[in-house]
Amino acid sequence: MSRRADLAASRTGAAGAVDAGLEPGLVVAAHGRHAVVETPEGHRLHCHARAKKSDVVVGDRVLWQPSGDGGVVERIEPRRNLLLRQDEWRTKSFAANLDLLLTLVAVEPPFAETQLARALIAARAAGIPAIVGLNKIDLPGAAAARARLAPYRAMGVEVLELALKADPQGARALLLPRFEGRATLLLGPSGMGKSTLVNLLVPAAAAQVGEISAALNAGRHTTTATTWYWLDAGRRSALIDSPGFQEFGLRQIEAGQLAALMPDIAAALGHCRFYNCTHRQEPGCGVRAAAARGDIAAARLRIYDALHEELSQLRR
Question: What string of DSSP letters covers 76-94?
């Protein structure tokens, strides 16, 4: 199924047969066992999950049945993908059935490259295409920020340069064609300009957040809820805003998987003396040789080393 057809299936229920008495729906917000479900006609209602502990997330296609003024989610349809952020305490699911991940960083405040790398690794592990948005390029530190992102461009990651406040129309012209017919998750730490981007593309976003918070009875959680916004009247293109984060755990990934999930490291695989090389300190390592030639940036190799050590410690 194409990305556009799959997104349409979230509205029409064409992704699977509907059980007798159950209705298809799209989860546009969720908090605990509570969810806001959108019907194929565009109506939104408050639902709760049947199970005591729900794993319903934004982007899920579900089957639900009416109950009182709302509904009950009876089943989650099979997912194409699921983006996870797993830390030491718990697993957090950002969203499901995504077509694109946009990770937003900024010239100011300076972004943490390790956070960016973690987000891109998680997306690659989930099979979700990813791009990077560099915001605030009108500020004096833009050249330094571009240089930090040069290794990502070299490994094939598209980097869009944005000035969301200084040049909003230019930002719209860059972003909207890439969002066309897709469900795009917006990800990034606080302070990078995510709210500015959402308000630029979805003028009614603030009102929608208020309505969703009221529906979920979770007003105090408005800054921590992932929310689905339609970008067009035909409901073909969607932007999913996620909470800002300061840490991005990768506990769901094994240390041995890490190299293959970092494109610049992966390009050097297959040239090591030992078949079980960890690419840390073994002699005859093809990855270390590539780094010595300058094919892998020193900062990227440091990130690999730190993440490999972290993931290895978690399994001990």
Answer: EPPPS-EEEEE-SS-EEEE
Sequence ranges of the domains in the chain: 3-76, 82-241, 255-314
Positions of the chain with pLDDT under 50: 1-5, 7-8, 10-17, 219-223
* Pick from 136, 59, 134: nearest CA to 100: 59
Angle of the 142-154 helix axis to the 113-126 helix axis, nearest 10: 30
Give the whole-angstrom CA distance, residue 50 versus residue 75: 9
Using alpha carbons, list the distances in angstroms from residue 77 to 128, 266, 299, 314.
19, 33, 41, 32
| Greatest extent of the chain over all pairs of C-alpha atoms, in Å | 67
Residue 228: CB atoms within 10 Å? 23
Dist CA 13 CA 170 (whole Å): 36
> Using CA atoms, how far apart are residues 82 and 97, in angstroms rounded to an integer?
6
Per-residue pLDDT reduced to its tens digit, 239-266: 999 876 666 778 889 999 999 999 999 9
* Strand ranges, E, within the chain: 23-31, 34-38, 44-49, 61-67, 70-76, 82-86, 91-96, 100-106, 130-135, 159-161, 183-187, 227-230, 238-241
CATH class assigned to 255-314: mainly alpha
Q: Identify whether the C-beta of residue 132 lies closer than 8 Å to the C-beta of residue 153.
A: no
CATH topology for 82-241 is Rossmann fold (3.40.50)
pTM of the model as a whole: 0.88
How is domain 3-76 classified at the CATH fold level? OB fold (Dihydrolipoamide Acetyltransferase, E2P) (2.40.50)
- Selection from 131, 149, 152 nearest residue 141 by Cα: 149
Provide the token pair at 282. Answer: 């073994």
Asked if domains 3-76 and 82-241 share a fold, the reply is: no
> Residue with structure tokens 């094939």?
156
* Residue range 84-106, pLDDT digits in tens: 876 555 556 779 999 999 999 99
**Count of residues for the chain?**
316
23 secondary structure, DSSP code:
E
User: 227-230 and 238-241 as β-strands: parallel, antiparallel, unpaired?
Assistant: antiparallel
